[in-house]
Every structure is written in structure tokens, then in C-alpha cells.
Write a structure and sequence with these properties.
Elements: H1 3-6, H2 21-24, E1 48-55, E2 58-64, H3 66-74, E3 80-86, H4 91-101, H5 105-112, E4 119-123, E5 126-136, E6 145-155, E7 158-163, H6 171-178, H7 189-224, H8 228-260, H9 268-333, H10 349-370
Parallel strand pairs: 3-7
Antiparallel strand pairs: 1-2, 1-3, 4-5, 5-6, 6-7
Helix pairs in contact: 3-4, 4-5, 7-8, 7-9, 8-9, 9-10
Length: 374
């Protein structure tokens, strides 16, 4: 039995399985198992920690140092505390934070070892949720997706989020927290975790809408004047749709596992909200499949249109070549240097040859026209 089998973690079906390394782009873990070593493809950034402590009538928001983060992680206090860690390059800080939170070292390994399949794990009074956040490059149309792992740890009175780099979809959640009287201000850590998970799932719908608009524009252009450049753009969109599928499908399984988990950290009302998020994830899966089918159909129709236009060009060239083949034969015959050719001595031989060639060309052209080849 290895170290993972001996761990006290409780996994939840498909949502907790590790994805194969070569399919997810995850690199081999340097160091010993359980080491919180960042393995992402993005350049590591300096670790920054942001604090939000709030209640129904109070709000404390500011950046904090590592010592303060460790102290609050160990004893969050009476108010709900949200610690947002951006940048996973500081291995020592992550390990100390994991110990302060009372997390198993393998959980910290999963947090720092980005590229995990979306999943959740729970034990005692701790819950870990790992998700994938997708970003699209700015521009007139989608220009490629970049995935980032977002990890959420939930403990009584405390939520800790881990991100690879600055920039996230959680600004709407922060705005709701800053608004007096909002539900988040009077709810527990499970509702805050739900709001964060819901924001990541809703992010997929924004991407799907943007890709749908791009496909509509591309479809119109491809039918009016297709070109190999359209095929390249379709291929790029298909690669993005594949990445969307690899994110949305396991997210649906993650949410289904959360609903089945009997952890005490998720209240009954929060489970109802998570059920709604699961429904949204199912809708996103259907939308992704529809998107892939649209792209496959668009690629096939573009290839067919390009082939049809190429066939039309080849048909015209073939007709022209067929008309000139007998003319070339006649010119070649009378271009031979033989002395005894009776036609060369006739007075009307030259205009007669021209008339014959013109009549032959017109006759062939008319024959092609009647058959619909011209």
C-alpha cells in the first residue's frame, strides 16, 4: 500500500480521479510525494495574499503578509474569513499554510500541482474543491484559451482560495460582499464557496456565447468566399472547444460528487443552490457538444465548398484544354517539314485550315454547352 492509499482523504467517485499526465499537460512532480511545489506552465509570480473578513454589519478588506495569513488560517475568528492566495511559487509558505489549516500534505500537493482534473475531497471539517478557470485572449474573436487551476478550501468560518496568477472571475463575488445587506454578508463559508464555484461555471457560458458569435460570423464568411484561412480558424476553434469539453465535463462530475458528499460543511440550503449549479453545468456540457457539432459541420461544408469551387475551375480548364487539343494536332501536322504536302500548294489552303479549326472549336464548345459542362 502506497502513501496515497494510507492517506485519510475520502475521495468521491469519478470526480476525484486523477487525469493522465499526458492528457492534462501536467508535468511530473519534482520532490517527494506531498511536496507543495508549483508545476504550472505559466511563469511563477510572487505570492500575494488578500483578506476579506466580513459579517452582517462589518467588512475588513486589505492585503496581508504571510505571518498574518498563517495566524488567521489557524484561528479565523468569529467573522467569516476569505483568504485569497495568488501565486503558488512560494513552496515554504504553502506548506506552512497547509499545516496551519490542518490539511493533509497530499492536498497541498494537489493545490500546487496544477493541471488536476476538477474534483473535490473532504475529510473531517475540511473540504477541497479543485476547478479549472478558462480565459480567452482579447480581440475581435476568440484567440485561444488559457486554463488556470483554482483551488478552494473550506473550513468552519474560513474559505481559502489558491490561484496561479492575478486576474480571476471573482470580482462579482467581491462586489456582492462589499454591498451591505447582501446574502453573502450573513451566510456561512459553504455559501461563499457555492458563490465562487457558481462564478467559475457561469464563466463557461460567457465563453460559449462568444464562441457562438464567432462561429456565426465565420459561417457567413466561409459560405460567401471560402479560403484555406477559414479552415485554419475553424481548426483553432475546434481545439478551444475540445479544451472547453475537457473542463466542463469533469466539472459536472465534480458538482454531482459534491451533492452526494455527506460532509457537514455543506448545509441543506447550500446543497439546493449547488444542485442549480449542477444543472447549469449539464446545460454547459450540452452547449459544448452542440458547439463541437457546429464546428464539425462548418469544417465539412467549408471543405465541400472549396472542393466544389476547385472542381469548377478544373472543369473550365479541362474544357479549354479539350478544345485546343485537336487544334494543336492540326497545327502540329502542318508544322512538319515534309516536301510533298499537296495542301501547301493550294491557293485557299491557309484560310481553309483556319475555318476548319474555328468550326471544330465552336462545335466542341457547343457540344460541351449542351451537356451542361460549360
Amino acid at each position: 500500500m502506497n502513501a496515497r492509499d494510507e492517506s485519510p482523504r475520502r475521495r468521491s467517485g469519478r470526480a476525484s480521479r486523477r487525469a493522465p499526465v499526458r492528457l492534462t499537460g501536467r508535468r511530473a512532480t519534482p520532490g517527494a510525494p506531498g511536496s507543495a511545489t508549483y508545476t504550472g506552465r505559466h511563469p511563477p509570480v510572487a505570492t500575494r495574499v488578500h483578506l476579506l473578513r466580513f459579517g452582517p454589519s462589518s467588512l475588513d478588506e486589505h492585503a496581508i503578509d504571510a505571518d498574518t495569513a498563517l495566524r488567521l488560517a489557524a484561528k479565523p475568528g468569529e467573522q467569516l474569513t476569505w483568504i485569497d492566495v495568488v501565486g503558488l511559487a512560494d513552496d515554504a509558505f504553502l506548506s506552512e499554510l497547509g499545516r496551519a489549516l490542518g490539511l493533509h500534505p497530499l492536498w497541498m500537493e494537489d493545490i500546487a500541482n496544477v493541471g488536476q482534473r476538477p474534483k473535490h475531497e473532504s475529510v473531517d471539517e475540511a473540504l477541497l474543491v479543485v476547478m479549472r478557470s478558462l480565459r480567452v485572449a482579447d480581440g475581435p474573436e476568440p484567440a485561444g484559451l488559457e486554463a488556470e487551476q483554482v483551488s478552494i478550501v473550506v473550513r468552519p468560518g474560513l474559505v481559502v482560495t489558491f490561484q496561479e496568477r492575478p486576474g480571476d472571475p471573482f470580482d462579482a463575488v467581491r462586489a456582492r460582499i462589499r454591498r451591505p445587506g447582501s446574502r453573502l454578508r450573513s451566510s456561512g463559508p459553504d455559501y461563499l464557496a457555492y458563490a465562487l464555484v457558481d462564478t467559475v461555471v457561469e464563466e463557461a457560458f460567457a465563453l460559449l456565447e462568444r464562441y457562438g458569435d464567432a462561429i456565426a460570423e465565420l459561417e457567413d464568411e466561409a459560405f460567401r468566399r471560402p479560403s484555406p484561412a477559414h479552415l485554419q480558424r475553424i481548426h483553432a476553434l475546434r481545439m478551444d472547444a475540445l479544451q472547453l469539453r475537457r473542463t466542463v465535463w469533469p466539472t459536472r462530475d465534480l458538482l454531482a460528487g459534491l451533492l452526494r458528499d455527506d460532509t457537514s460543511l455543506l448545509g441543506r440550503e447550500t446543497r439546493t443552490f449547488l444542485g442549480d449549479v449542477h444543472d447549469h453545468a449539464v446545460q454547459a456540457v450540452d452547449a459544448v457538444e452542440t458547439l463541437r457539432e457546429l464546428l464539425s459541420g462548418l469544417q465539412e461544408s467549408t471543405l465541400s465548398t472549396l472542393s466544389f469551387r476547385m472542381n469548377e475551375v478544373m472543369k473550365v480548364l479541362t474544357v479549354i484544354s479539350t478544345i485546343f487539343i485537336p487544334l494543336t494536332f492540326l497545327v502540329g501536322v502542318y508544322g512538319m517539314n515534309f516536301e510533298h504536302m499537296p495542301e501547301l500548294g493550294w491557293r485557299w489552303a491557309y484560310p481553309t485550315l483556319w475555318l476548319a479549326m474555328i468550326a471544330l472549336a465552336l462545335g466542341l464548345a457547343e457540344g460541351f454547352r449542351r451537356r451542361g459542362w460549360w
